[in-house]
Amino acid sequence: MKRKIFILIGILLFPFQVRVVAEIIPFNRAWSFILQDMTDDEYLKLSGDDWRVVNLPHDWSIEGEYKEVGNGTDWQSGFLPAGVGWYKKTFNCPMEWSSKKVRIQFDGIFMNSKVWINGHLLGERPNGYIGFVYDLTPFLKVGKNVIGVKVDHSRPLTGRWYTGSGIYRNVKLLISDMTHIPYSGIWFRCKNVTEAASDYTVDIEVISFESSSLQVVTHLIDGKGVWVDKKTEDVTNGSSCHIEGNISTPQLWSPENPAVYTLICQLVRNGEVLDENRLVVGFRSLKFDAETGFSLNGKNIKIKGVCDHHTAGAVGAAVPEDILYYRLKLLKEMGCNAIRTAHNPFSPDFYTMCDTLGFFVLNEGLDGWDIPKAKNDYGNYFDQWWKTDMTAFIKRDRNHPSVFMWSIGNEVPKPKPEIQKQLVELFHLLDPDRPVTQGGTDPTRGMKTSYDKNFQFLDIIGFNGNGEEVGELERFKELFPEKCAIATEVPHSYQTRGVYRTKTQWRRRDFPAPWEKKNSVRWDEFERRIFPIPDLSQEECFPEEDVNSYYQSSYDNASVRISARHSWQRTSSFPWLMGEFRWGSFDYLGEAEWPQRCGNFGVIDIAAIPKDAYFLYQSLWSDVPMVHILPHWTHPGKEGKNIPVVVYTNCDSVDLCLNDHSLGGQVNDGRQLVWHVPYTPGRIQAIGYKNGKGQVADVQQTSGIPDKIVYSCSKRTLKAGSGDVARIEVSIVDELGTFCPMASNRVVFKVEGPLKLLGVDNGDPIAHMQYQSEFCQCFRGKCVLLVQATDKFGTGRVIIESENLESKKLYLNILK
């Protein structure tokens, strides 16, 4: 699915025949790695026995051990080790490359990287999120060559979240003629877009030092492989080329119909293709209005967004394509239509998947500016590097139809207007088609901010926590009715999968201390700022959960300032507010107090298992009929005690039954549907009705003791050497197959054949696991195993075992 656009174009038969001399070579396999510092020339001398072989992408920090002290990292950066790592790769240069341009493309190295070829320094980049290309040609020799990469993460307080360490994104070799298109040298723009027709332009940079005649040839191909337009332009030496085109009845891109085209740009000399680039592009029109909000293709639309970090639990920052795709599909099925890249550029693969799956991307290039927010972060390099890095960022991503807005910062401390002005001017110069925003306010100034001073050069005002303050959005609109606005980080709510409390919880650092009296100054200030969330019961139904204060309630009643439901209702009620990006999507490593490894802000846990909040958003954002009951219905010792049963649905009404006895129905009027049910073991069922007909149901069943292992597997066929990954989710059930929501069994995995155990996880925010272990403790009845295909092919086998439970075996086909 995720590669369909590339497979389709790869098998097209073009209506002309040319000889192609350009190619892109994956360069991820069989790098040598060592975690130690050394002099810049020592990597060539150190024997092979001192190195270990790794495949890229690679994050060495995620392989380490959690330590509260001793790793040099902290609550922000995630308690995992950093250090200095070296990579090298030996490869052969064939004779035919001696007349070619040979470049190496790194999509991301965290951070402070230096790259050498055969002892010659190619360059250095401090930014860990920006891709770059180096020219190997002057230093290549026919036969053996050695690439060396130093990654200096010795000063590890580099982020307010876990960043990872190493060459954690893809590497490629770009082979072309000396006459070539530089990296990010193509700019596609669609103009005057309607359902009847659309204009487009393509600007292509050309690097050439020859006198012979050259042509730039562009082909535009739709998603069905139909060639819809071709243009040819002559070019002069070392110049750029501008092409204008028009197509009729374009397939317009939208989240509901993410129609994409492939743009092929070729440099041709006498029928020979010297260089070729292929891009995914799309046709859509964007409109941003201070009164009506955001419109796509002439239709008003609300942004139903999430903020996401670039890491993915057990694999850290080195996220395989299959894992990234699985996560995006989960968000799509939730009804999400937009993602904010918090707070840095993501991998190129991410944007292409968003193009083809149908997500808007609020593309954020920076967290802060010239003042570091974490001691060793990019703020130390901003003045020297911002223009280089942001230029590379914009040029890399401006062709993607999914990218609809840029962000130049997030809660920037002491923001200087002159820096904001310079950044906005650069973004407008390189991409005049998209607006620029900035996430939230300067946190040192509190929530009340001077919008005309702090955001004066922005196209769109972004609201973070200040957007959750009582009356703040209304105040802004009254003062600045002509300004566009979007909630860039709203709301902030907590939840731990499978954990419930019926008394409302607020973030500890904001909540008045226990000894402060009601109606005190601090209480008054707190209550003035928040939107109240009523308790679900007078006495806590689940006092046992208070034993662990790092777990949060999976009812929609644990928050910073507002509940998730109320936040979306407010966003929906303001026509001028373009939508919201909730914090966050998945739980993420870092930014969590010890003993936590991750916070509980996600609606999906760190093992990519949905929480109840996932279904709350599905009820608010999705049109596919659904109903979901919480909590689970296994509460021994609570017989006869009233338990609040909440149902999330997008149906018109819901009927609730316990052991086939009706508990009554409720109309879905936008409020939370709650029944107070005396606990009786058995079966509780919710049925959702649309137009008077039962459409969908959900059931919670009281479980017995753990008896069996069941599992689901994301894919059964993998390709050898491709990096393909299968995700195996394990659940513990009783003898009747009923899920055991409190099971904590220790599960052991045996991985055999051409498979590698990539990682394990269980979603527990305070589990300090070794991710590459062959065992995992279930948390709330579940755990997850990730296995990856090796370079060999055949049948892989995974054996899943737990004491006193019948083991399970599954087989995966690893193809050539």
Outline:
With 816 residues, the chain is mainly beta. The chain has 10 helices and 47 strands.
Shape summary: globular
Distance between the termini: 19 Å
**What's the rounded overall pLDDT mean?**
94
Largest beta sheet, briefly?
A: 8 strands, parallel
Percent of residues in helices: 10-25%
Rg for CA atoms: 27 Å
Give, in spatial order, the strands making up the sheet with the most strands: 26-25-24-23-22-31-28-27
Q: What low-confidence regions span 5 or more consecutive residues with pLDDT below 50? A: 1-18
Counting DSSP E segments of at least 2 residues, the number of strands comes to: 47
Structural class: mainly beta
Give the DSSP E fraction (strand runs of 2 or more residues).
35-45%
What count of helical segments does DSSP give?
10
Q: Please, could you describe this protein's structure?
A:
The chain has 816 residues and is mainly β. It is 12% helix and 35% strand. It is built from ten helices and 47 strands. The protein has an eight-stranded parallel beta sheet, with helices on one face. A six-stranded antiparallel beta sheet has the order 4-3-5-10-7-8, with no helix packed on it. A five-stranded mixed beta sheet has the order 1-18-17-14-15, with no helix packed on it. α2 (321-334) links the parallel β22 and β23. α4 (382-397) runs parallel beside α5 (417-430). The two termini are 19 Å apart.
Question: Topology of this protein?
Answer:
Elements lengths: L3 H7 L8 E2 L2 E4 L4 E4 L17 E3 L28 E11 L7 E6 L6 E5 L2 E6 L6 E4 L7 E11 L17 E6 L9 E6 L5 E9 L8 E8 L5 E9 L4 E9 L12 E9 L2 E10 L4 E4 L3 E4 L2 E2 L2 E6 L12 H14 L3 E4 L6 H10 L2 E5 L17 H16 L5 E8 L6 H14 L5 E4 L11 H4 L5 E4 L8 H8 L4 E4 L17 E2 L14 H9 L28 E2 L4 H10 L3 E6 L29 H10 L5 E4 L11 E8 L3 E6 L2 E7 L5 E6 L4 E8 L2 E9 L6 E6 L3 E3 L5 E9 L12 E7 L2 E7 L13 E3 L4 E8 L4 E9 L2 E11 L1
Parallel strand pairs: 1-18, 22-23, 22-31, 23-24, 24-25, 25-26, 27-28, 28-31, 29-30, 40-47
Antiparallel strand pairs: 2-11, 3-4, 3-5, 5-10, 6-9, 6-11, 7-8, 7-10, 12-13, 13-16, 14-15, 14-17, 17-18, 19-20, 20-21, 32-33, 33-36, 34-35, 34-37, 37-38, 39-41, 41-45, 42-44, 42-46, 43-45, 46-47
Helix pairs in contact: 2-3, 4-5
